[in-house]
Amino acid sequence: MGHSDTPFPASTGQLLNRAQLALTGLHLVACGLVLVVGESARYALAGGFLVVFCAGLVACAVAFVVAASRSREEEVTVVGAFFLGDGAVPQAIRRRMWGLVALQVAVGLGVAIASPDTEAIFATLTPLLGIGIAGLFGASHGRFAKRRSTQ
Questions:
Q1: Residues 31/105, Cβ–Cβ less than 8 Å
Q2: I want to staple 74 with a disulfide (CB 3.0 to 4.6 A). Which of 33, 37, 100, 144 is the partner?
């Protein structure tokens, strides 16, 4: 959902929307598996959760850099870039992105609570990538007011 006044093509917005949906689906499957597989497979799933968490750290850092670079010419806000608020993106996109993050959090916490003495606790790490994806979307495709000259 790129805007004509941003340097990012709409295809990246569509890709980020699909990535958020795919991440949520994979998270649901992985969380289900971590509850039913043997111990050695749970270690592999925990490793996968850690990899996704690290990818989330990178996504958040990239979103921050993109937002900072746009802030030279636009009044980019944290609420707009990461939380998709301040009217930066359409409400439907905001609800979808953060609804999926909320689902990731709820499922991760549910799995961790259901099996607290196992590697299932690592399922709580996945939502950081969801937050990073939302941040990338807001930083790349959010609409912000032009920066006023301070001179």
A1: no
A2: 144
**Phi, psi torsion values for 145, nearest 5 degrees:** -65, 150
For 73-114, give the DSSP string. Answer: TB---HHHHTS-TTTTS-HHHHHHHHHHHHHHHHHHHHHHHH
As beta bridge partners, residue 146 has 74
pLDDT at 63: 96
What pLDDT was estimated at residue 3? Answer: 43
CA distance 108 to 122: 8
In order along the chain (151 residues), what is the average pLDDT of each group of 10 residues? 51 86 93 86 91 96 96 93 93 94 96 89 94 95 86 57
CA nearest to 107, candidates 39, 37, 1, 32: 32
Q: Kindly give, in sequence order, each residue whose CB lies less than 8 Å from that of residue 28, ignoring residues fewer than 6 positions away.
A: 103, 107
Question: What is the model's pLDDT at position 151?
Answer: 57
Please give the structure tokens belonging to residue 36: 């039913």
Structure tokens that stand for 6 in this block = 């941003």
Residue type (1 letter), 25: G
Q: How far apart are the C-alpha atoms of 139 and 131, rounded to whole Å?
A: 12
